[in-house]
Each structure stands twice: as structure tokens, then as C-alpha cells.
Amino acid sequence: RSEAKALQHSQEHNSKAVVSLLDVVEADVIFTCLPTSKEVDDVLRKLEQELRPGTVIVDCTSGQPEYSRQIAERLDKQGVGFVDAPVSGGPRGAEAGTLTVMAGGCRDTLEEARCAIEAFSRKIVHAGEKPGSG
User: Fold this and answer.
1) Region for 52 from its dihedrals, namely left if φ exceeds 0, alpha if ψ lies in -120 to 50, beta otherwise
2) 21: CB partners within 8 A, 6+ apart
3) Residues 32 and 59 sit within 8 Å (Cβ to Cβ)
4) Parallel, antiparallel or unpaired: strands 99-104 and 87-88
5) Beta bridge pairs of residue 57
6) Strands (E), the chain
7) What are the tens digits of pLDDT across the range 86-116?
8) CA torsion through residues 41, 76, 67, 129, sign
């Protein structure tokens, strides 16, 4: 949310803080969690040309299934995986790492991101093979 918060988080959790949106393309797994699917689409369009094949996008937004399917189709053409993964458990669950994730997308793509998702969740439910079913 801010450079200061990103730096604090990186120190507390031994992660890498990024200041520019384009810096996230270095990651193998990229998470989004935004107010609506429209914002997710806007952000991913800004990153799209820089994403590497094999990258996995995990969208934790409680968004619109049709948007998720459209985004996944577009990214698939570049060899980028997409899993929609809305969460349940609220802020306390997030802080405690006990969220439940309802994931929609290819099981193999979900497995590529599983370790990163398990960092904040206790339970991952694979809700279907198609993005938008999470």
C-alpha cells in the first residue's frame, strides 16, 4: 500500500519489497487482492507484456467469475497461469495465516502456487478446473 509498509513487511518476513509495479514481474508467483475484478484486470494489463512464461497469477479478489475466465484466457496465450482464489476468514485469519482459499483453475497451476498460498491459509479447496470457479 505504501513504500514504507512494503519495506517494513520485507524486513519482518524476509521478503523483497518492490516500489514499482513492474518490479513484481521478477516473481514466479504474483498475488492480487483488489476491490473488484476490474482493478485486477487493469493491473494485469499493465504487467502483461513483461510477464514471463511459467509465471502464476493468484487472484484473491472476491471478483466476477467471467472476468477471471477472460483474464486467464488472455494470460494463457503468453504461457502465464492464473488461479482465482478468493479467501474467507477476514483480517484476523489473514494475520494468523488461517484463511480458507477457494481456488479455481488448473490443478497443476494451483500446485505450482500451493506453497506460496499456504503461507497465509490453513485450508485450500480446489473448486474447479476453470478459473472463475473459486
Assistant:
1) beta
2) 43, 46, 47
3) yes
4) antiparallel
5) 30, 82
6) 29-32, 56-59, 81-84, 87-88, 99-104, 121-128
7) 999 999 998 899 999 999 999 999 999 999 9
8) negative
Q: Which three cell numbers stand for residue 50?
A: 513483461
CA-nearest of 97, 116, 112, 109 to 133 is 109
Enclosing H/E stretch for 47: helix 37-47
What the block records as the C-alpha cell of 56 is 502464476
Q: How many CB atoms lie within 10 A of CB 90?
A: 10
**CA atoms within a 13 Å half-sphere pointing along the CA-CB vector of 77:** 7
Place of cell 505504501: 2
Residue 13 amino acid letter: H
What phi, psi does 18 have (nearest 5°)? -120, 140
Give the Cα separation of 69 and 7 in Å (integer). Answer: 33
Whether 88 contacts 99, CB under 8 Å: yes
Predicted TM-score (pTM) of this structure: 0.92
User: In angstroms, rounded to a whole number, what is the distance separating the alpha carbons of residues 28 and 92?
Assistant: 27
